[in-house]
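Example record

One chain of 135 residues, shown exactly as stored in the release files.
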Amino acid sequence: MDWEEKSSSEGNEDVEGQPPAELVYANVVEFVTEMLAPMYRRQLDPAGRSNTFTWCAQWWRHDEAVSRLAGLWRAWENLRLDPTTGLAVWWQNYADPTMRVLFEEKGPFHGCTPREHRPKGVPLTLEPPPEGLFD
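Predicted structure tokens for this chain:
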């Protein structure tokens, strides 16, 4: 099945009295593996040097990437049903900003290379708020 077949509006939209459309991809892994990764063609530096696109083949080990890609998948599943501007909206409002963050040199894959998982990021530090502040 090619991109246009997968993005067509087959199935019923989530309209009152009709069942929601079936998912094209069963989960985020299937979406990334079968659609997203093959579609994105970028020159990746195997050494992960700066000023290049950064990617980690073990993207599923990065919580932020999983969360962002899951949102991207869910948005695609919904917007593909819009036969007019759905895919344009998906690209402009979802795919482009999400992938820009993921590919960013200092983004979630910082330290990793396309061949090796070596994350450098650390969780944000937190201090508890004063007691009663949010009561």
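Notes: The longest helix spans residues 86-103.
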